[in-house]
Amino acid sequence: MGVKTWIEGWPVYRQLTGGDPLGRAAAVKSRRSDTLAPRSATADKVVKSICPFCAVGCGQNVFVKADEVVQVEGDPDSPISRGRLCPRGSSTLQLVTGSAREYKVLHRRPHGTDWEELDLDTAMDMIADRVIATRREGWQWEEDDARVRRTMGLASLGGATMDNEENYLLKKLFTALGAIQIENQARI
Amino acid sequence: MAPVDIVIGRKPDLTGAMLGDTDPAHQGGYVDHPPRMGFFTDTSVCIGCKACEVACKEWNAIPEDGLVFTGMSMDNTQGLGADTWRHVAFVEQRKPLAVQDPGVLHDGVDVLALAAQGSGTPPDRAGMTPTTPGDPGDLRWLMASDVCKHCTHAACLDVCPTGSLFRTEFGTVVVQEDICNGCGYCIPACPYGVIDQRKDDGRAWKCTLCYDRLTVGQEPACAKNCPTNSIQFGPLDELRERADARLARLQEAGVSDARLYGRDPHDGVGGDGAFFLLLDEPEVYGLPPDPVVTTRDLPAMWRRVGAAALVLVGTAVAAFAAGRRV
Amino acid sequence: MPGSDDRNGPVEQARQGPGTPGGDVTRDGLRNVRPDRDAVTGVVAGRPRRGRRGHGGGGETQQVPDATFTSYYDKPILNAPVWEAPDIAGYLFLGGLAGAASLLGAGAQATGRPGLERSAKVGAAVAGFLSLVGLVHDLGKPQRFLNMLRVFKVTSPMSVGSWLLAGYVPLAGAAAATAVTGRLPRIGAAATAGAATLGPAVASYTAALITDTAVPAWHDGYPEMPFVFVGSGATAAGGLGLLAAPVAETGPARAMALAGVGLELATFERMERRLGLVGEPYSQGRSGAYVRVGKILSVTGAVGAVLGRGSRIASAVSGAALVAASVATRGGIFHAGLQSANDPKYTVVPQRQRLEEGRPATGTSTTTRPVTAATGER
Amino acid sequence: MAECHPVGFQWVMEAKARGATVIHVDPRFTRTSALADIHVPLRAGTDIAFLGGIINYVLQHEKDFREYVVAYTNAATILTEDYQDTEDLDGVFSGLDPEERTYDFHTWQYEGMEVQAASGQRDQEYADQPGGRKRSTKSVRQAGRGEAHGSGGAAISGQPQVDPTLQHPRCVYQVLKRHYARYTPEIVEQICGVPQDTFRRVCEHLTDNSGRDRTSAFVYSVGWTQHTVGVQYIRSAAVLQQLLGNMGRPGGGIVALRGHASIQGSTDIPTLFNLLPGYIPMPHAHAHLDLDSFIQGESPRKGYWAEMRAYMVSLLKAWWGPAATPENDFCFDYLPRLTGSHSTYETVMAQLAGDCKGYFLMGENPAVGSANAKMQRLGMANLEWLVVRDFSLIESATWWKDGPEIETGELRTEDIGTEIFFLPAAAHTEKDGSFTNTQRLLQWHHQAVEPSGDARSDLWFVYHLGRKIREKLAGSVDRADRPILDLTWDYPTRPMPSHPGDAEPDAEAVLAEINGWDAEGGPLSSYEQLNDDGSTACGCWIYCGVYSDGVNQASRRKPSTEQDYTALEWGWAWPANRRVLYNRASADPDGRPWSRRKALIWWDGEKALWTGHDIADFTAAKSPWYRPPTDATGAEALSGVDPFVMQADGKSWLFVPAGLIDGPLPAHYEPQESPVPNLLYSQQRNPVRQIVSMVHPNDRFQPSGGQPGAEVFPYTMSTYRIAEHHTAGGMSRYQPYLSELAPEMFCEVSPELAAERGLEHAGWATIVTARNAIEARVLVTERMTPLTIDGRVLHHVGLPYHWGHGGLAPGDAVNDLTHLSLDPNSHIQEVKVGQCDIRPGRRPRGPARVELVKEYQRRAGITEKTGTEI
After folding, report:
1. Which of B41, B70, D57, D580 gets the most CB atoms within 10 Å of its CB?
2. pLDDT band at D303; cut points 50, 70, 90
3. What pTM, to 2 d.p., does this model score?
């Protein structure tokens, strides 16, 4: 950067030569301000989504840059929400990118006093083994002379924040396992 | 009025020149600038959901501002500051809202004395904790989202010694975080108690009216999210017209408490870029009833400073004159 | 009750008026749609008439009693200055001391009082330098001071002050250095003259610095504050002379101190009286205590300076008292500002009074009543 | 609504802008009240008395929309002579079996019709079949068939007798009039604490704004469902809206504001014990049950439910594909059977009993959010294994080391044998899928980024769990394993770029299966295409059409500004993208809109089609003058003036002859725990509320009404949400921006109650019930108003239930106070009303907390029998 550029970049110089002698506006604009661009405009893509909190179903636009969610805001196209979000919906970015998110599988042994980390695939294997064993233990072909062909050994709770497709697979798998104790927030 | 007319010690009214006219962007040397943009916050449709607070924090990545239960109705934010750029005030009053039927009926309990128990507010000073004196069958719950006023004559901007605080081409007032040196002068200069210092970095922070978003034609995060359109964003001229019509309609409909705050370009700060429709006196919401930009008096101050300097010189001369004899 | 009629009239209008009740869902689509921001509450329905309780008139028309005022949970309206007392109260004191001391040094040089000259010039240089240190310390990082020289803003006393200090501190330093070493007398003379020229500004501009804020106790004191400041500066510089200079050369210092004390006390008194409620912090609480100590020390120092004029020790003690007086006064003024900003009373009451007396700060009030809106200036 | 659904509230504001009156009925003055024209505080748990009072007002003043009522409701239908009302039996209906605590519905039927249980409680007919047994009937009822009709309808056969003049003493209209005659403004005032003047104004506003030219809507949330009479609350509103002609019309209806992104979807495609997708009931254990007897027992002859066999067979084909053949009853036998209620609360009991040993928690936090949360935690402490899938380490994942029972010493970490797996879940931004919102609208959310670390979608989890189980069981000859091994589970997957070797199932392929396909594998476009011969497969018949033409209709996003207000090209609503259910009722019997101001759909004579702004919830070409032949079945059997097409008689039901467990008409019963005796009847509580199965030392009930000991818990408490947090806090208390808005558990009390109990504003209070004691900060506010109930002052304690011991903003969980008494239809717990004591100061620490509760139990004389009276 030459001296001339430096001088011309000096706000005092701009004060003396430009339209802002008091140095309160154009003359003092910083380099950062000059190049400011909102991350909602520089995102690589905008993905259409739906708010995950309550059941109003507000539209969301998810802004992605370098494979990271950088902003979530209301979708103005939505006939339901017209681009608006409540405080919970407004906190979606923090929900999905915040420090409260866990990214490691954790395991607590019976009688253990703390978590231990576990490989995801191992965990899935262990869970599958337990499902099979518990299902057998609680199996019933009949109750009071009526055919029931079910297991009372395992149960599930949850689903009201899950996708329809997820619930569908869950209900399908549970029913095929003969497990009937499957419930969600709609009961609560 | 001449655009620049700075002569220290001159008698005539310097206010206009010192403070700029009502097109502050033009005054600031921007040519072909966009219209002045602002907020009209209509508190009569605010539901106090605080979406504005969260949306603002998300967009501007503002740190958490303390986990404190206050007992101030549903307000645990307390006020604007470096880490709170939108603040929703909650006011519970024994007053009617037009002919709204609040359904409540209270008896015989000195609520103000109760308020003194633990709220830290002396009874005679309790704004409304839990409520103001009045008819025990009356209740209204006022909510209002406060924000930087983006004054036409902005004291924070005037006193900033670095040019960090500056007037943008949209007529808004913005802190440039790469320039701010943490001198803190803007903080006591603001007549509304808006701008404040972030403790861990020493710099001053406040609402930017989402300057970055404005540059590409997006509206500020708070206004965009506001579920009931209490926060309205747009060219200030339009907002003022809309607000006048709204006020007239409310007044006609019997909401006689409605008033505009900061809408008048001739008030002590030359009108606010972010102005409000309130349902009670400004101080009820924690707003100053008649704020003045301190730099309005700066010419007089400089004159007094000059005079005092001369007095000091005179004192010194006299001291040496007298000192010969002493 | 006429009030009730007034309230009910528009309700009926709203019920019967055009567009209300509005929205129609016709075969051709929606009609009379209005945006949600047009919603009104308590107008189309509510309770028919007041007075189901025997309490008479509602709170609406009740005037706030004079003794009290309304606030938002007693929260301050202003954000108080975040300056640290040692940094900025010290800055006020040191600036005053330095500025007045530069005059004292120049005068001493001109009138041939080398002892006074040296002590005044060194005092000015050290005070000037320390005031800069105080400022930089308050900024947190030294390089941040450079941003002060990015612009020159006449609207910012701190900007003006920064440029002033940027000029003054080297001059005062050069003046002190030449006075102490005796070298480069010409440069020393020029530096002395320069420092003496800028000195009064250094001593007085800090008044603009604090009064150019929204802090009521500071801002509203702006007519007197510069005189209080130069008075306090003269007191401190005079005190410094009494403390440090040979007793034979202290005459002008003593005179300056006496004049300073007189000026400071008189203008302070006038300011407090004029300010009334807003001036309360100058006599109450922590700040009031500082101010009282300052006054006592000033008077004591002045009396001591006069009575003990022949004694080196008495002069020195008096001088120290005067310097301390200036410190205390500046501290008092600084804390009064904090106290004034932290209590919404000092913000609301005077403004409310202005409005009730029908003399808002400028042409019109910040609050636009419907009647104003109807006439509208546009 | 302004509290919990702020964005939805914009439409209330828009209605206000157009002149609507907003009345808010709630014990507390909330954000909604602040923007309402009239706020009506009433005692929690008394809504049926309040609504019954309005019904009485409408009937006494003949404010009903008579033409609508006669044409579209069952007001004219005549009941059998056997029916006895609460008027005749002092608060109970005919058919009550006090021993079994069930109703026999036979006496609730229409005159001249073959008796058949229908809606909700459809398979009661089994009891009359050879081989059917009484136990079976009872357990079926316990299974909660009431909600098995989310999509409507029930079964009736034969032609009911009617009296269009509504004069017949046994016609529904007259029965209704008699039933509600005692719900006078005076009694409403005494029970609810609503002044008569206020009540009358509410009645006037509602009736003035209903009828031909105007419509009114009711909006409710779980404030109505979480009661022992929750279903009857909503029924009361339904009776009112039918009388006022507000159903199926623009601006009318009963709007349920549900609380979770896809809670509607999780009912439609149910993760619920008693339902199969599309509200097909789970089969109940009966001797010799096969597909035919199941359909016989469940399906009516008329209306769209008459096609249940097609829906069921298509579902079985979707699940078991080629293995499902006509010869093997399409694998109907693969379905497990119910024997009574297996709701989440029974599951907790089964956990405590040691029967239920494995538990999945998927985005659910029962350690905070379920009634009597302590029972939930104790149940989990008795498991062999627990899998928690969530974003953060919520209380339900960490109770074993930091739960309240660890602090009190009731549990010791080392003693707890539960093995726990915590699996981080992917967020909605990290996966494709659809949510069904509260207005039955399916909206697709697209994946924006890959989930990080071990976080995975629930789709991934369920798919791969199923895959692993199938692999491990491969080759098994155990008959019990056939359903697993025959299951269609070959979903296409795509590799996950950031997780080499891993694969995510294709959510759209699952949606395609839900939508269904024909014999050639082509996507179906309507449930009317479903066959009962196995030629079609469909995972959820009411969602059929969501993937019509092979296009994901749920992902349609034509901007609202580019279409009209019904926005039919945004997402997809079930059924058949209809936005207003039963909208045939928006037109008069001749097919013309009732009013120029209220036109939604109408009969276009030229095109011989129903047309308008919405898609007709009616056979499109069925003219208003169509009358079915007497032998018609299914949809054909409904006439052109039968708008309620899921009902077997095409009418909406003021009186419910079948399908409800606890009575054909709503009657006011006091909550399980109430400060007063029932002033309307000598029957204090809902006699068939579900309670007996929940008796447990940690779930003691309190004395109620005038019983001795009731005075120990003198205050009425209610739980609720606030705008700042979400449900049990898993998605909000771990986020700084939401936590700082409401950082601590607090309770809301009136100044009067604060004075009475010496509570300090912003100080601490301890709230005690027979279950537990919790502490909360005190918010004294005039928004809480004392009510005068039957001459005595009653105070409410307001308790937001968001807090638990974890997160950034921890606090005691309100659900530690609540108890397990359930609505018999829906099995939803009564947490919106209860009785408590409140005292100043923080609660005791350690074992003293338990001791305090015991002391209260002793003082109130509580035993295991308390509160379990019929």
Report:
1. B41
2. confident
3. 0.94
DSSP string, C170-234: HHHHHHHHHHHH---HHHHHHHHHHHHHHHHHHHHHHHHHHHSSS-HHHHTTTTTHHHHHHHHHH
Same domain for D159 and D245, yes or no, is yes
Other beta carbons within 10 Å of C5: 9
Q: Are residues D107 and D238 in the same domain?
A: yes
What is the pLDDT confidence band of residue A9, given thresholds at 50, 70 and 90? confident
Interface check for B140 against chain D (CB to CB < 8 A): the answer is yes
Q: Which residue type does C19 have?
A: G
Q: Which two tokens stand for residue C279?
A: 């001036």
b/e map C48-58, b = 16+ CB within 10 Å? eebeeeeeeeb
Q: Which chains share 3+ C-beta pairs under 8 angstroms with D?
A: A, B, C
Where do we find the tokens 């500025």? C99
Q: Is the peptide bond before D575 cis (omega within 30 degrees of 0)?
A: yes
DSSP state of D314: H
D549: which residues sit within 8 A by CB, 6+ positions away? Answer: D523, D525
- Positive or negative, the CA dihedral D257, D262, D268, D271 is negative
Q: Within 10 Å of residue D471's Cβ, how many Cβ atoms?
A: 11
C182 by Cβ neighbours in 10 Å (0-12 / 13-18 / 19+) ranks as exposed
Kindly give, in sequence order, each residue whose CB lies less than 8 Å from that of residue D141, ignoring residues fewer than 6 positions away: D102, D103, D121, D124, D661, D824
Round to whole Å and give the CA distance between C202 and C97.
9
Is the CB of B78 inside 8 Å of chain D's CB atoms? Answer: no
Which of A107, A114, A155 has the CB atom closest to D421's CB atom? A107
Contact assessment for residue D446 and residue A48, using Cβ atoms and an 8 Å cutoff: yes
Q: Are B180 and B161 in contact (CB under 8 A)?
A: no
Residue type, D267: T
**3-state SS assignment for residue C354:** helix
- CB-neighbour burial class of residue C299 (10 A; exposed 0-12, middle 13-18, buried 19+): middle
Is C153 close to A23, i.e. CB distance below 8 A?
A: yes
Which residues of chain D are within 8 Å of residue A134 when distances are taken between CB atoms?
357-358, 384-385
| pLDDT tens sequence across C19-52 | 345 678 999 989 888 999 999 999 988 987 554 4
Instruction: Note the pLDDT of residue B262.
Output: 96
Rounded distance, CA B205 to CA B177, Å? 8
Name the residue in chain B with its Cα closest to that of A63. B59
Q: Are residues D757 and D716 in the same domain?
A: yes
Containing structural domain, residue D621: 583-643
Q: Could you report the per-residue pLDDT of D497-548, keeping only the tens digit for each? A: 989 999 999 999 999 999 999 999 999 999 999 999 999 999 999 999 999 9
Please indicate, yes or no, if residue B107 is contained in any of the structural domains: no
Across all residues in chain D, what is the average pLDDT?
A: 93
Report if residue B295 sits inside a domain.
yes
Q: What is the pLDDT of residues D54-102, one digit of tens each?
A: 999 999 999 999 999 999 999 999 999 999 999 999 999 999 999 999 9
Query: C-side interface with A, Cβ within 8 Å?
Result: 149-155
DSSP one-letter code for B188? H
Say if B220 falls within a structural domain: yes
Closest CA of chain D from C26, distance in Å: 5
Domains and their CATH numbers in chain A: 3-34 (no CATH), 39-97 (2.20.25.90), 103-134 (no CATH), 138-188 (no CATH)
* Token pair of D496 as six digits: 């996950």
Distance of CA D562 to the CA centre of its chain: 35
Contact C150 A10 (CB under 8 A): yes
In a domain, D244, yes or no: yes
Helices (H) and strands (E) in chain B, counts: 10, 10
Contact across the interface for B309 and C78, Cβ inside 8 Å: no
Show which of residues 256-315 on chain B sit within 8 Å of chain A, judged by CB atoms: none
